[in-house]
Write a structure and sequence with these properties.
By secondary structure, this protein is of the alpha/beta class. The chain is built from seven helices and five strands, in the order βββαβααβαααα. The longest helix has about 35 residues.
Length: about 190
């Protein structure tokens, strides 16, 4: 099994997300150990401004397994992965890649911390963000302006900061959540 931190950046010219028309401008992935959060490789950033959206989607399509038998070759780990996987599936389809979205969502394994962020936010979805709990310097709201102004250095800095903050939080979670369950299990009489 190969575990990878995964995140995409999209260009949203309008405030509302438009899965069919918002372009993917960057795909970021890095191999990690899902049990410890330790990184195993370099941060890879596929940038559309260096080639095109179609080119980075093709590069990632060749990395991300589309066959059911290969689904454990790339286990995505991230925050709000249905957003990322949904955009990937629709933009692959838009560009003519043969991708079936049902196996992508129903059969492909992934680890998403967004539900844990909601729990850490006292059950509130509003504000349950990586910015709040991971300490990122920026939110994604600046991406559209940076992309429009061709400020690619700021986009790269955002991606690197977000990746570092995510991986630090994930590493903390995998270290401490098993102990939290052990405390509960002792209190509930599940274990002695």
């Amino acid at each position: 099994m190969s575990d990878y931190y995964l995140d995409i950046e999209t260009y949203q010219p309008n405030p509302e997300t438009d899965f069919y028309n918002d372009k993917i401008i960057a795909i970021t992935y890095r191999q990690i150990d899902c049990r410890t959060g330790e990184t195993k490789g370099n941060l890879n950033i596929l940038k559309s401004w260096e080639t095109s959206e179609k080119e980075i989607l093709e590069q990632f399509y060749n990395i991300f397994p589309s066959e059911k038998k290969d689904k454990f070759k790339f286990v995505a780990i991230g925050d709000n992965l249905p957003f990322d996987l949904g955009h990937l599936a629709l933009r692959w389809k838009f560009h003519g890649f043969g991708i079936n979205a049902i196996p992508l969502f129903c059969e492909h394994p992934y680890i998403d911390i967004s539900s844990l962020l909601v729990l850490m936010n006292a059950g509130n979805m509003g504000g349950a963000s990586l910015h709040k709990f991971g300490g990122t310097k920026w939110t994604g709201s600046a991406i559209a302006e940076w992309y429009t102004n061709k400020d690619y250095a700021s986009i790269i800095a955002y991606i690197e900061n977000e990746s570092t903050c995510y991986l630090n939080l994930y590493k903390f979670m995998v270290k401490h959540l098993p102990g939290l369950w052990t405390d509960y299990a002792k209190e509930a009489g599940i274990i002695k």
